[in-house]
Amino acid sequence: MNWFIKRIGQGLFTIFAVASLTFVLIRTMPGSPAQQLAADIRQNQPSLSARQINVMVEQRIGVDPDQPMHEAYMNYMLNLAQGNLGESVNYQEPVADIILRSLPWTAFVMSVSLLFVFIFGIGLGAIMAYREGSKFDVGSSIIAIFLSSVPYYVAAVVMIYVLALELSLFPLSGRYPRGVEPGFTLEFFTGALHHAVLPAASFIVTTWGGFALGMRGNSIQVLGNDYIRVAKLRGLSDRRIALRYVGRNAILPMWTSFLITVGFMFGASIILEEIFTYRGIGYYMFDSIENRDYPVMMGTFLVITVSVVIAVLVADITYGKLDPRVESGGGDESY
Amino acid sequence: MSTHETSQTASTEVPDVADPILEIRDAEVYFDMDRGVSRVLDNVSVDIERGEVLGIVGESGSGKSMLASALLDAVVDPGILSGQITYHPGDGSSVDVLGLEKEQLRQLRWEDISMVFQGAMSSFNPTMKVGGHFEETLEAHDYDVDAGMERARELLSDLYLEPERVLDSFPHELSGGMQQRALIALSVVLEPNVLVMDEPTAALDLLMQRSILSLLEDLKEKYDLTLIFITHDLPLIAELADRLAVMYAFELIEIGTSDEILGDAAHPYTRSLLNATPNLDAPLSEMQAIEGSAPDPVNVPSGCSYHPRCPLADEECVSEDPEFRPTFTENHQAACFHWQDSAEVIPFNIERSDTSEVDDE
């Protein structure tokens, strides 16, 4: 229990440290919301004087961009501690609202992707291991290596071109069909699923290979163990050996990397959602970077940080339950 | 390839036993490898008597473990096992082990002939409690689980373990000796008639080896087991075994009672092996290593496979493979043309009378 509290404390500290670092990094980026806005206005209304533009900028943003960084940092952190993520410069609404609106969509695409990555990766990897050296094994290994070398955004572009533009099987962008009211209706649900296929597929196609190869290696190693041979001689059914002996022991080492993939997927969602104009958390993050929208940038970044920290925390806590050899109480996480 | 292919397969003369529980005839295991055929068990024929303890001794890589696996028709892929293994359950019937259907073989293993592997530490599923191994084994063979678990508890306490604690532990929570004893209990939980033990004490310290051996003796008496004990540690098994069979280069080269082997070993290899065995009673300087090295299974020397290392070897040994022949007694047999001379050429470096006395107990 003591370990549990310590572990959560470490997680909170990580979030604090990343938030501070992010804050400094974002503020030291060239350009500021004020400059961005001033440039915009100047472009749209070249007749205005610099003085007039400055007044307009101050009215629009409502915050003082010239505040010294340490003061801004203190303000931000105090607000953050109270759960206030600030207000978007660009959308004039609380950042929390933007996150609440977009996060479920990203989480949706990610869950679908993770589910399929896990099923494909683990399933195919296990079959490859059982048929080690066969044509199926060699063929799948080559495909797996090839696909895991393809960046997910390249896969996304190829899929858009082939499946959306040429074959028109899937929508090009968006989260759900135009004209459908969001709600608990079948039409909305299938529509949302249809729109999520391509973004999810870009993940699945480029990620399953790594899991399959990992599972294959683990399974082959487990299959070579004496206890598999003893289990066979004891007359256990092949099914039981495959699930309880090979499966269980081969999946264990993948559990941690599986949860870390969650963090990777949040990061990848930035580019992917931009490609598919899929208004999830990544889309808003990209958008905020373009518009120098500090509060949204900070907020979305924090969401990614928190989710990675939670994923690793879950991995740490559950691992001890899954593998009896690792006790949750043990101080070192040496796996 | 050597000329070994021509070795005779007709040599089925083996020492008689009164009531054989297992008859092994011309058991042969080979692997097809890129550089040739690897024959890792070569025409081994032996009878195993009901209720005896047969020790099978040989150096590393002499085919001992292959013989053990062959008894359960469990040679690892892609090894090919041929020959004849007949099992006599004791009710007058006989079972052709190598001719069994898959399901019958599954039942024979563990229910009739069971096995303890070397390295108990790796014989349990690390993510399953020890008790789970007992339960799933009973279930897989349609035994009454409650009665079986009761028997498991009794077995574990016979082996001086606390049954509840052990059954409720994960393998890594037990010491090596405890795991080994739990594995022995697991191997006899279905009440087999024959227990094959493949170096069951190899990974344990000397004290634990001794204590497991004495436990085995009790277990054998209590459950009417026939034990086949495979080891490279000749002095260790000599105390437990009724008979000893010595293997060299994938063949049996000598068989006899423990006393006969220890006292009057007929085969030059057995004598040299005994001289090479460390012994507390003998000064280290008296230990004599056997010159040369064990043959490669792909390329076994022609004739007697021991001839390149044997001080008695002559042309006959090079050209012909000696068959088993009776030596000092009818049932003490050795595969050597010159067994009469071996004692003279290779004298024992110590008297082994002490060990013999222990055997008589």
Automatic annotation (TrEMBL), chain A:
<dbReference type="InterPro" id="IPR000515">
    <property type="entry name" value="MetI-like"/>
</dbReference>
<dbReference type="GO" id="GO:0055085">
    <property type="term" value="P:transmembrane transport"/>
</dbReference>
<dbReference type="GO" id="GO:0005886">
    <property type="term" value="C:plasma membrane"/>
</dbReference>
<keyword id="KW-0813">Transport</keyword>
<feature type="domain" description="ABC transmembrane type-1">
    <location>
        <begin position="103"/>
        <end position="315"/>
    </location>
</feature>
<dbReference type="InterPro" id="IPR035906">
    <property type="entry name" value="MetI-like_sf"/>
</dbReference>
<feature type="transmembrane region" description="Helical">
    <location>
        <begin position="105"/>
        <end position="130"/>
    </location>
</feature>
<feature type="transmembrane region" description="Helical">
    <location>
        <begin position="294"/>
        <end position="315"/>
    </location>
</feature>
<feature type="transmembrane region" description="Helical">
    <location>
        <begin position="142"/>
        <end position="164"/>
    </location>
</feature>
<keyword id="KW-0812">Transmembrane</keyword>
<keyword id="KW-0472">Membrane</keyword>
<feature type="transmembrane region" description="Helical">
    <location>
        <begin position="192"/>
        <end position="213"/>
    </location>
</feature>
<feature type="transmembrane region" description="Helical">
    <location>
        <begin position="250"/>
        <end position="272"/>
    </location>
</feature>
<protein>
    <submittedName>
        <fullName>ABC transporter permease</fullName>
    </submittedName>
</protein>
<keyword id="KW-1133">Transmembrane helix</keyword>
<dbReference type="Pfam" id="PF00528">
    <property type="entry name" value="BPD_transp_1"/>
</dbReference>
<comment type="similarity">
    <text>Belongs to the binding-protein-dependent transport system permease family.</text>
</comment>
From TrEMBL, chain B:
<keyword id="KW-0813">Transport</keyword>
<keyword id="KW-0997">Cell inner membrane</keyword>
<dbReference type="GO" id="GO:0016887">
    <property type="term" value="F:ATP hydrolysis activity"/>
</dbReference>
<dbReference type="GO" id="GO:0005524">
    <property type="term" value="F:ATP binding"/>
</dbReference>
<dbReference type="InterPro" id="IPR017871">
    <property type="entry name" value="ABC_transporter-like_CS"/>
</dbReference>
<keyword id="KW-1003">Cell membrane</keyword>
<dbReference type="Pfam" id="PF00005">
    <property type="entry name" value="ABC_tran"/>
</dbReference>
<dbReference type="GO" id="GO:0015833">
    <property type="term" value="P:peptide transport"/>
</dbReference>
<dbReference type="InterPro" id="IPR003439">
    <property type="entry name" value="ABC_transporter-like_ATP-bd"/>
</dbReference>
<dbReference type="InterPro" id="IPR050388">
    <property type="entry name" value="ABC_Ni/Peptide_Import"/>
</dbReference>
<feature type="domain" description="ABC transporter">
    <location>
        <begin position="24"/>
        <end position="274"/>
    </location>
</feature>
<dbReference type="InterPro" id="IPR003593">
    <property type="entry name" value="AAA+_ATPase"/>
</dbReference>
<dbReference type="InterPro" id="IPR027417">
    <property type="entry name" value="P-loop_NTPase"/>
</dbReference>
<dbReference type="InterPro" id="IPR013563">
    <property type="entry name" value="Oligopep_ABC_C"/>
</dbReference>
<keyword id="KW-1278">Translocase</keyword>
<keyword id="KW-0067">ATP-binding</keyword>
<keyword id="KW-0547">Nucleotide-binding</keyword>
<keyword id="KW-0472">Membrane</keyword>
<dbReference type="Pfam" id="PF08352">
    <property type="entry name" value="oligo_HPY"/>
</dbReference>
<dbReference type="GO" id="GO:0005886">
    <property type="term" value="C:plasma membrane"/>
</dbReference>
<protein>
    <submittedName>
        <fullName>ABC transporter ATP-binding protein</fullName>
    </submittedName>
</protein>
